[in-house]
Amino acid sequence: MKGRFEVMNTKARLLFIATAAVLLLGGVQVLSAIPVYTLESSISIAPSSIPIPESGTIVVGMNRLKLTTNFSGGETFLDRAVVQLISTGGFNVNDIQSIKVWYEHNGGNTIFDNGASIDDHLVGSGTTFSPNPVTINLDQVITLIGGNSSVYLYVGVELKSTAATSDVSIGVQVTSLITDKQTLTPPLHGIQKPLDKYRVALTATNIAPVVPPDPEVKQGESVKVLKLVLDPDDPNNSAAVLLESITLHSTGSSDSDLNSGGVVLYEDTNENGTYDTGVDSQITSATLGAVTPAYATLTPATAVTLPPTGKTFFIVVNISLTATVDNVIQLQIDNPSTDITFSDAYADGVSGGDYAYVLPSREYVQEGYLLGITAVPSPNTPLITIKFQDIDMPPVVTSIVPGNNATNVDRTATVVAIFSKPMIVSTVITNFKLFAGATEVPSSVSLAADNVTATLTPSADLEWGMTYTATVYGNGSSGVQDSVDNLFMTANKVWNFSTPPAIHPVVLSTIPMNSVIEVSRTTIVTATFSKDMVAASVQANFKLHDGTSFVGGSVSYDAPTRTATFTQTTPPLEWGTVYTASIDTGAVDTDGLNLEAKYSWTFTTTAAVYPIIVSRNPAHGAIEVDPADPLTATFSKDMDGTTINTTNCLLFKDNNSNNLYDAGDTLIARTATLSSPRVMTIDPSANLDWNTYYTIKVSTAVKDTEGLFLQSDSYWFFMTKVLRYPAVLGYSPADGAVAVARSASITVAFSKDMDDTTVNTSTFLVEDGGGTPVTGVVSFDHDTFTATFDPVSDLTYATYNVTVKGDVTGMQDTIGQPLAADVTWSFTTRPSLSEPVAANNRIQPGVNDRTMIFIPQPPAEAGGADARVTVQVFTPTGKKVATLVNARRYSDLEPELPLLWYGVNGRSEDLGPGLYFIRISATKWVRTLKVMVVR
């Protein structure tokens, strides 16, 4: 027996099959005594009550296994079962905890009881599944007593709590049972029911193609394609077989060549072996499916009973009227074993007991298949070729425009119906109509020259957002009529379409935007629309108003950008004024739809900002103004240069020094210009006077580039400098400076800028103590008012006198004022000493050829500046070898210091190498220096 059901939950969806079959023999001595065994379903369990197991539960097949034996040779003991794991979809063996076998203790109730007071016993369990199948030893030996005794077994599986959540299909199948006598192997095949299930063998005795006398059929005809004789071939003539379905496969040209439901199964009602139209009964029909290759399954609403003597069936196809000419029709039964399905109705004496319980909507596994075929169909049934059906066909509408349920149809569209054949014009004109709801739309109808294409033209554009119904009338006896066969169309042709909703134009954006302030008086005013507009309607309805009157102007419309522009006739707009721009509802788009409401927006022009003077040079009330300084005024805005002139920009000399402009003031000759967009410059014709008050006036006739005038006359005064001569503020080196660097420059700082042409070596003199001029270069820095004397070579060790010439022959400032008098000072490069010093006191050829002897002024007790100084050279033995100075007054000697000695004697001959002593003496004052001569 085979029972199949499918169970599922969130963790696993498993298909469990409990299958067992047993053959029992009374003993090995009587091999011909084959026990009769049957497989039964537990009919007391309804499909809806089949449990849906979860992981960790035990699932038992709902069909029990009944073992019956007629062996009379004594007892037989069943002690082992060989069980095989099977799958229809693949599974993980690790999901199974064990395979279990139960023995029904209370054999009469046919229900699996586990846990009841009198329950079914677990008699065997297996937990090792490799190799597959596995042998399960029964813990309890089951005894079969001869003489039609029966026992009942259940086989099931126990799931692990970790069973996988994926959809799998697993089951078990008993492949053999082992008794103490022998091993019994049921003839089970996969998950099919055993062939021995049936006491009868169904044989297709004749599946023959029907070859029509003429292999050509016309459109709209019906033709028999197969004859099928099914014979149960029951030798005992004791069972009935139910025909459940026949599947036909198409290998023809086009499945659409058959009508819907065009494959029909007939029963040979009068049992004459011939298909008789109107006599044989139609059992069912089917439509070829959409898959490729197509097939049709003929399934009777009620299974057809095949009597023991067999039954003949005919399969007929109905060719469509629109079938393609020269296409072929070809239907065949590919495999009778699978294409013809049936069941044994009464094999076990219980009606319906042969069906496994299945969950709703799940796959149903066919119970049986053909045992043998006495006549196998040829590989292909003959081709039946479709030919044109030369019959009078009523006209039909084959094409429409707009299509059915079309949307957004243009309001100017026409409605077109194309017929299958030429029509009588008058019948189409009166029977082709268009409706908006229940109201007929005024229209005219015309036909093309071929009288096949009819066009309905509405008298006016269709309404926006309206659903229309087009109807071509015909009922078989009235309506549109063809001109070929004078046949009426058999049914009204009705279709619907709709026009787009009315989308009125709107203003998307404006320039200026609404409520904007500080708008330029020369602004353009524009509006951009959401749709293409009719230019003339926009031009007539675009206005600009200042609150009192309309602004003159013209309107242009740019179609690519959908923008309307208002251009003023006499710009600019007024200062600080609120303007209202508006476009009235007379503005329409190219669809004829107007603005639904007047569109207005406002903006405010820039307030008048009058020019003012923001800075003046000289500043108001300034004193010590250089008469040569520029006279300027800077405005707050760009100015109109034509108004900056000598008429509007005045310069007065304040004759009474009251800092006010009055009649006694003198107008100064000048020019007035706009030197930059905002800067006015007044240039007097002659230099201004020193120490004098002046007044500048800028009148209200001055205006900016926007035409706005100065709101009041502007006055300011200033006073020029008092005339002052230049003076020397300081110099370097300072007067009396000593130890001045011999590379030093001599600088003089003045109180004012000087005329650099008067600052030169004739007016800037540097002389040594003997009155010899020092050669140098003189320069002047106008930023720091500083004159610099740079000697061309380093100064010597001496005292220097500096003279800066003044008066008319000396240095002058930039306006010709001379330095009042000569400025003189002196400095020395000699070091400040209290004792004599011999510098470079090692004379060595190629390194140092002389020594320098610095002598300070002797002390007062020696005579001071008047002391008579003698300088002599001695050897270490006291021998005098040279006299450098002999009793000279120090004041006369001082300008010549330092003395230079080249290591020679009084005859200028080189002395030999060695140490020499320089003796410096005056009255009561003697000093000695050491000098080394190296040769």
The CATH topology of the largest domain is given as Immunoglobulin-like
How far is the N terminus from the C terminus? 142 Å
Percent of residues in helices comes to: under 10%
Question: Main β-sheet, in a few words?
Answer: 6 strands, mixed
Helix/strand/pairing class, anyone?
Answer: mainly beta
The geometry reads as elongated
Report low-confidence residues grouped into runs of 5 or more: 1-56, 165-169, 187-205, 234-239, 345-380
Which CATH class of the largest domain applies here? Mainly Beta
Total separate domains: 7
Mean of residue pLDDT values? 79
Please give the number of β-strands: 66
Number of helices: 4
**CATH level-two architecture of the largest domain:** Sandwich
Strand content bin: 35-45%
| Rg calc | 67 Å
Task: Please characterize this protein's 3D structure.
By secondary structure, this protein is mainly β. It folds into 7 domains: 196 residues, Immunoglobulin-like, CATH 2.60.40; 176 residues, Immunoglobulin-like (Sandwich); 102 residues, Immunoglobulin-like (Sandwich); 99 residues, Sandwich (Immunoglobulin-like); 108 residues, Immunoglobulin-like, CATH 2.60.40.1220; 101 residues, Immunoglobulin-like (Sandwich); 97 residues, Immunoglobulin-like, CATH 2.60.40.1930. Strands 1, 2, 6, 9, 11 and 12 form a 6-stranded mixed β-sheet that branches. Strands 3, 4, 5, 7, 8 and 10 form a 6-stranded antiparallel β-sheet that branches. A hairpin with a 2-residue loop joins strand 65 and strand 66. The relative contact order is 0.05. The N terminus is likely disordered.
Features:
6-stranded antiparallel β-sheet; 4 helices; 6-stranded mixed β-sheet; 7 domains; 935 residues; disordered N terminus; Immunoglobulin-like; 2% helix
